[in-house]
Amino acid sequence: MEKKNSNPISKFVGYLTSNPIVLLLLIATIIMCFTVNNFFSWGNFGNLASNTAVRFLIALGVSGCLITKGTDLSAGRQVGFAACLAGILCQRGDYANRVFKAIPEMNIGLVLIIVIIAGALWGIINGLIITRLHVPPFIATLGTQTIIYGLCLVLTDAQPIGGFQKIYTSLITGRIGSVRSFNIPYLLIVAVVFGLLFWFMYNHTTHGKYMYAIGGNEVAAEVSGVNTTRSLASIYTIAGIMYAFAGYLLAAKSGGASASMGMGYELEAIAGCTIGGVSTTGGIGTVSGILVGVLVFELLKIILQFLGVNPYYNYVVQGVVIVVAVALDIRKYIKKK
Amino acid sequence: MSEYLLEMRDVSKSFPGVKALNHVQLKLRPGKVHALMGENGAGKSTLMKCMFGIYKMDEGQIYIDGQPAVIKDPMDALRQGIAMVHQELQPIPARTIGENIFLGRYPMKKYLGFIPAVDHKKMYEDTAALLKKVRMNFDPKEKVGNLSVSQMQSVEIAKAVSANCRVLILDEPTSSLTDNEVEALFRIVDDLTAEGVAVVYISHKMDEILRIADEVTIMRDGQYIGTWPANELTTDSIITKMVGRELTNLYPEKHNVPGEVVFKVENFTSINPRSFRNVSFELRKGEILGVGGLVGAQRTELMEGLFGTRSHTTGKITYKGKELKISRPKDAIDQGIAMLTEDRRGSGIMGVLSVADNVAIASLNHYLSFGDAIDGKKVQAVVNEMIQKMEIKTPSQKTQIQSLSGGNQQKVLVGRWLANNPDVLILDEPTRGIDVGAKYEIYCIIEQLAREGKSIIMISSEMGELIGMSDRIMVMCDGRVTGFVDRSEATQENIMALAAQFE
Questions:
Q1: Of A40, B36, B379, B420, which shows the fewest CB atoms inside 10 Å?
Q2: How much is the ipTM here?
């Protein structure tokens, strides 16, 4: 009986000792909970959950690219584009500064579908450039990143977008359950659903198996009958859909959108994945790891905020965390050799 | 003064599981071309790598001018006058000839008397002189990437000459050259020997050896067989000395019975003119067709062409009476063809993935339960079956494949294909780099598969394996099929003769 109990605990301890960054953060969080007022509160929890949720969706999208030894630098711009597109289409019919005055007020479900189709298109374009034109992912997505940003500026005329339908913004402010101050933000539910979906996709479908195989050894995967062209293209397409989803939610969450929305999110997502154990050499990465990686970042931000640290230092600390986390991770790997 | 410029005495070298060199010797006279010969895997390259300081010898001693010498690494070898032109050239294509030749030891000068900088003028002047020496009429500032293979080789030789080498090792220098280019190379070699350089010449081409070599040392299975003056040897006597070994009983008894023709290849020609051409052969149900040949015979390339990893221009593949169109491996796999790669690390295992994932990857379509979702239990069952059938030694299904031994990795890869239940199995060097015990187990699996009616194509560079396992042996040389040998008539001599039938 006791052995059964100690197993998951010893596993957890083993995990923490091999991931010192996570351990440090856990300790910091516990200390914060006991020493800083309001840190351990439902309000703060909801805030953390919503922030993490959007980042998590983006990180899930980019994780497929990373696991197959690629990357997607256009993630943040795709989020921005989706946010702007969603914002424009979700404006109230009676709002004075509507971008497209000709079209009537749209159903926000329809808008979601349009935004997702647009995101999928960006993903397909990335996928085709990488698989058909054989442009390395880093360069390919660097190019599309710039293209998408430019088109987004054209679309919005570099003006902020506002005047959303109430039903759209309430997607985010909405909560399930209201026992005292306890409630679950819708965003969290969306994140959980996608987390489970990706977990299933990565572990129990041919798509996932092919993805890990390509990351493990692309040549071997191809000669084992994997259509690597199609697999890679669909990975980038799925990524595009995830960014579109994130952008749609982000605009609703902020109550407004602009072309600069989601700036730098691709780097945060890549960093989150890497901290969460997605291997830069390909073939390794789990959904739970990605969640931990993203959570580490968001916790770190909140802790710094509660400690009253000058927000400019956030960047310094985040950068240090990225380098240290990956350096420690690589060290494990080198030792094994 | 010793009569030998360089001597290697009593050299032994072991790798895990293999004794690559067993008390080998080599004696080089100044101004002479010394040919080093032996089958694939006889230990020629290993010996040269010991001389060049890439490998450390377990036993033995090198003498230069009769004095004991220690060669620590390739830089040290160069300093002591030993240079090597590798089988696969590794130039930096985007840089100039001069930069390639002086890489790592650029002539330096001082700007304004104190800022160190590369002296380009001197470098290119020296390069021009060197190129003249190897009879190359080229601008020293030409990018190496614009040169042909033979010209790159000349650049490599110029590089060796620039280090004032006294011993020059040429490892299969003519494997990708045309006749004219070979002549040009021979003239360079003549020039060098006239200056007293000792040349070690590794090649499989008998006529070249007999033409250019002064002395021939023959090796077999890591053993030193002997050294003879080249004019006392003939093609036949060299072959006999290279292969003259007893076949021991390392192979299972064969009970498979070849049936009707199921797989037919006609006039198969590569898109690359230097690769396979006009290849035709038939394969029977339950037959093991061995494919023999020397390094560079294009056997792997041919099989990759059939399997869809390489492009071909003309040719027809007929399988069970219908013509196959194969443009990528998936097409071949869907038709029931499997190919076990020779390059286990490069195109076989997915190192960081589990044994189970490595087995299942080629047959995932068999385990679908709904839509794209995989039934984990089915996968587990198949993987278990493979682990048991082939006695794969692994702690669990979830173990990373890279932590297994080579033999067990190979069995996992065989399992990957068997899980797909193919009818035609192409096995490329199925026992390369595995220990003797595991080899026998793999032979038993191959024989068993043939007995079950599967057709097997087995590329092998080991004579014993070819003769011991095949029903028929197709021999290739330089991209062509030079002949078929039946099991009953197969000897090492007649296979080697076909394998060395250069045009």
A1: A40
A2: 0.82
